[in-house]
Amino acid sequence: MPVEHYENFPVASFLLPKALRSPIEAIYRFARAADDIADEGEALPEERLAGLARFQAELDLLQRGEASDHPVFMPLAPVITRHQLPVPLFRDLLDAFAQDVRKKRYANYAELLDYCRRSANPVGRLVLGLLGEANDTWLKESDAICTALQLINFWQDVALDWQKGRVYLPQDEMERFGVTEADIAAGRQNEAWRGLMRFQVERARALMESGAPLARRLPGRLGWEIRFTVQGGLRILEKITEAGYDVFNRRPTLNGRDWLIIAARALLGKST
After folding, report:
1. What is the value of pTM for the model shown?
2. Biggest alpha carbon–alpha carbon distance for the chain
3. Which of 123, 109, 36 is nearest to 72 (CA)?
4. CA 187, CA 55: separation in Å to the nearest integer?
5. What is each CA distance from 111 to 83, 105, 150, 159, in whole angstroms?
6. How far apart are CA 131 and CA 105, in angstroms?
7. Is the dihedral of CA 178, 180, 183, 184 positive or negative?
8. Could you write out the DSSP letters of every residue in the chain?
C-alpha cells in the first residue's frame, strides 16, 4: 500500500515487528482501496456504491471459503483466516465509505461518532486482532485513538471536504458557535470560527490522550508504533492551534522538524 496515502501517521512502518507488517499492509490496502472507490476520481455516486458493493461481494466469497483473484483480497484472505479476524469489521468500513457517498452533513456529535465507529475504529480493532488478544480496556483505548485520528483528519481537511460537498462539523455545534456554511465557503476567520475549532481541537485532544495508555500496554515495537501515531495526531492539533485555526490557508501537515518533535515526545512519554 502506498504510504503517501497516510501522510501524517506511520503505517506498517519499520517500528512494527516484521511478522505484522504484511498483515497490516493487507488490512490498510483494503481500507485505502475501498476509501478511494468512495472518494477519488470523477465517478457518479451510483458507480461508487456499485464498486463498494463488489467489495462486499468479495467478502461474501471469502466467508464462503471461495478463492478470489482480486488483487486486494488475494493477500487479505489468508490474513483473515490465519488470525481469525472478524469479517464484520471489514463490512463496517465499507458501510462507512458508502455513507460518505450518501451523507454529507452530521446533525450532532453522536452521529459523527457513529460514523467514526465504522470508518476508523475497525482498523485499530483488526490490528489488535493480529495479536490474538484484546481485552475491553485495549479495545476502548484503541477506539479512542482511532476516532481521534479520524476527527483530526476532519479538522485539518475542512476546506478540502467542503470542495467535495461535505461538512463533518456537527450542525448543532456550528449553530451554537454562530458559524454558517457560508463562513466555510468563504474561509472566514473570525471569533466564531476560532471558538468552534478550538472546541473541536480540545475535544479531539482529550479523546486521543484518553487512548494513549494503550501504547504502554502493547508489546515491544507495536507499542512504539502507537506512541508515534498518537504523537503525530497531537502534533497536528498543535499546528492547527498555532495557525490560529486557519485550516483554509494553512492546512497543517507534518515535516521533518515535526517528526523530530514527535520522536522526542514519544521517547519521553510526553503529550505536548
Report:
1. 0.90
2. 57
3. 36
4. 37
5. 31, 9, 14, 21
6. 36
7. positive
8. --GGG-SSS-SS-TTS-HHHHHHHHHHHHHHHHHHHHHHSTT--HHHHHHHHHHHHHHHHHHHTT-----TTHHHHHHHHHHHT--HHHHHHHHHHHHHHHH----SSHHHHHHHHHHHTHHHHHHHHHHHT---HHHHHHHHHHHHHHHHHHHHHTHHHHHHTT---S-HHHHHHHT--HHHHHHT--SHHHHHHHHHHHHHHHHHHHHHTTHHHHS-HHHHHHHHHHHHHHHHHHHHHHHTTT-TTTS-----HHHHHHHHHHHHHT---
The residue type at 253: T
pLDDT at 269: 75
Q: Is 231 exposed, middle or buried (0-12, 13-18, 19+ CB in 10 A)?
A: buried
Mean pLDDT of successive 10-residue stretches along the chain, which has 272 residues? 40 65 92 93 94 97 91 95 95 97 97 97 94 88 97 96 96 98 96 98 98 90 88 95 95 88 85 54
Q: What value does the CA radius of gyration of the chain take, rounded to a whole number of Å?
A: 19
Q: In whole angstroms, what is the distance from residue 43 CA to residue 45 CA?
A: 7
Q: What is the pLDDT of residue 6?
A: 43
Question: What spatial distance separates the first Cα and last Cα of the chain, rounded to whole Å?
Answer: 30
Which residue's C-alpha cell is 466555510?
Answer: 184
Query: How many residues are listed for the chain in this entry?
Result: 272
Q: Look at residues 214, 77, 84, 82 and name the one whose alpha carbon lies nearest to residue 147.
A: 214
Are residues 96 and 150 in contact, defined by beta-carbon separation less than 8 angstroms?
no
Decide: 93 and 59 in contact? Cβ < 8 Å. Answer: no
